[in-house]
Amino acid sequence: MSIRPASEEELHAFVDGALLAARRNEVAAILRADPALAARVEGYARDRDLLREAVAQLSANPLPSQWAAQIQAAARPSPARVGRRYAIAASLAAAVGAAAAVKWWPPGDTILADALAVRDGAAAGGRALPAGVLADAAARDAQLASAIGLPAHAPDLQRFGFRLAAMQLFARGAQLRYADRGRRDLTIYVRPSNGTVRFDMLRQGAQRICIWQDNVVGAVIVAPLSAGEMMRVASKAYGDLDL
């Protein structure tokens, strides 16, 4: 009897130990027969281990109680950038370790509503990048930076099977739409922050939503991913934006 190919969701579930025993054995057999696929899955496992190491380091060296206030103060560019990366990395690692979301919904923080409106095509004023510009990394990043008013780079998510398929620019933000071979859509909505620091992992039907925001930028990632897969994608996206 032939074994059906492993989907991207199943590969991440395999890494996270979330497959039933019978299917886990089948996926293991698939990986033994496909060295290239096995190497990709090993990369997923390395990402998982790095996040777990970050959790262990945070446990040994807790964040100072005033870290959020220091980040929101946005005193000087260089220290602020270091603080932002530390805070968001800490949030990502803590969420992975606790398998739970930090819930903070400040009044007037509309980033999730804006992101879903853009994803659903309900936001007016969007401008799609032409295919030629989308394929030119330098031109594409320049357009993204202009739209959000911050230096930025479109994340490269090919290691997760997602390729950038479209980009829409708005008056105060941008949406990047990715697709994989299984026709799954992943969107990243980016805009300047309203100044509040937050991190959330939510579920809406088959979609998982990751929201992170610091004192400079906010982003919402929406895709039908497992929690572990979303955390790895979010971590990679944040690093690639290079804000």
State the gist of this model.
The chain is an alpha+beta fold and 243 residues long.
Question: What keywords describe this structure?
Answer:
243 residues, 48% helix, alpha+beta, 7-stranded antiparallel β-sheet
Secondary structure elements and pairings:
Blueprint: H1 8-15, H2 21-33, H3 35-60, H4 67-73, H5 77-98, H6 111-119, E1 127-128, H7 131-134, H8 137-148, E2 163-170, E3 173-179, E4 185-192, E5 198-204, E6 207-213, E7 217-223, H9 227-241
Commentary on this structure:
By secondary structure, this protein is an alpha+beta fold. It folds into 2 domains: 8-57, no CATH class; 59-241, no CATH class. 48% of the residues lie in helices and 19% in strands. It has helices spanning 8-15, 21-33, 35-60, 67-73, 77-98, 111-119, 131-134, 137-148, 227-241; strands spanning 127-128, 163-170, 173-179, 185-192, 198-204, 207-213, 217-223. The protein has a 7-stranded antiparallel sheet, with helices on both faces. A hairpin with a 3-residue loop joins strand 6 and strand 7. Helix 2 (21-33) packs across helix 3 (35-60), helix 3 (35-60) crosses helix 5 and helix 5 packs antiparallel against helix 9 (227-241).
